[in-house]
Amino acid sequence: MTYLECSALTQEGIQAVIPTAVRTAFSVSALSKKKKSRRFWFQGISFFSNNKPDEPQPPVMPPAGLAPWINVTTSTFAEDWKRLLTDDLVEPDVKFISGNNTIFGHQVILAASSVIFKEIFLTPKKMNKVPKKYSSIFEEIKWINGDLRSNNYTNNLNIEVSNDSHSRESAEITLNSSIDFEVFNKILRFFYTGLPGFAEVEVEDFVRDVKETSKLFHLPWLTQVCENRLKDEQFLNPSIGTWLNDETGSVMKNLFLNKSNLSDVQFIVEGKTVYAHKAVLMARCDVMAAMLGGSFIESKNASTCELKDTSLESFLAILEYLYTDHAPIEALDSVNIMVLADRFCLPRLVTLCELYITKKVDRMIEKKVADGTEFVVNLLLLSQTHNASQLSKWCLHFIATNYSVFESSDVFSLLKDENKEYVEEHRWPPLSYLKELEEFQNKINVEGTKEKCKVM
Question: Which residues form the BTB domain (predicted)?
Fold first, then answer.
């Protein structure tokens, strides 16, 4: 008996275990078949065969083959937020000062990932005085107008600011002198990505400093991440980061999705105003980044953009995906969402829609395949127009493996050129099998005629 171990988490031993398991399974199967063959066969004749030695044998129908697998693209949620820190994508609206060092942030991200910043940025009355409960981490908070990067701005003292997009102000926050700048860098990274981004080799004292400072910022999960690192159990941390990103997305949806809180851009869709946030849109979607900060016509008046040829329902689904990495595909028109996802160059959302749509087709044809012929053919043509390559391959396979049903339908004539060639080449059952079946039936008919003659 062979004994092997593997880990699904670290992938250790996987390459050795899988081939060994497959070989073992086949060897046992072959041995079992060999024993059965010896039991039931003698002198080349099966005791359980119903066929006479000279009787024609029916052809074996080849398998139809499995449908192409729909792979969902890996999430880039954390990496997209990280780009806000490393790339100059969006003008920041938070400036942190630590001695002679400065680092920038974005209110919408910080408010979604931190209860402290949620209170600071979403409180209608913004005062320069630091609340006593936060005096151990902040020395001063200023609300200002102007470009934070250029230092060309004015300080507004003791003002009351509403959180709508027309009166948004930036924050300049001076950290307490006890907060190490490099430690705060890791904490800021944690706010954005769910992990502090420790180097492979990190000084333990530095990790301990991050751990202690995380308690001041009310971050128990960062404390846990640091403890895992100190215990050499950092392999547990990626799952924590994934869960935290999901939680941040959920909070972001509740606080900001189509809400005026901290909004700095609006869309007009079907005559309705939709509120959004440039930091989210430009980090998560390259098309939005070009629209709001590039050479698009919309960027010239980037505070308000009108979108045509788009349903409000589908656009809100796209926004929900950008804010949360999830979309209400099952509850809404999944095909329209897929089309709009392609328009905004969101490949992962396209793959999520592809997967759900194939499940929808499976449910549609539970009673009979003919119920889905028109939908599948139109879906094939649509998927090829909107870069849903996996769905296109799936539809072609579905049509080919149900060839006789589709051939008799009215929409079969819509298949042209390469689509028609593929379906004809991969039709099931294949023509070769049908030809063999016809020959077999002819032989059976001939044998039947001979038997009748003998009886007469």
Answer: 92-200, 263-331
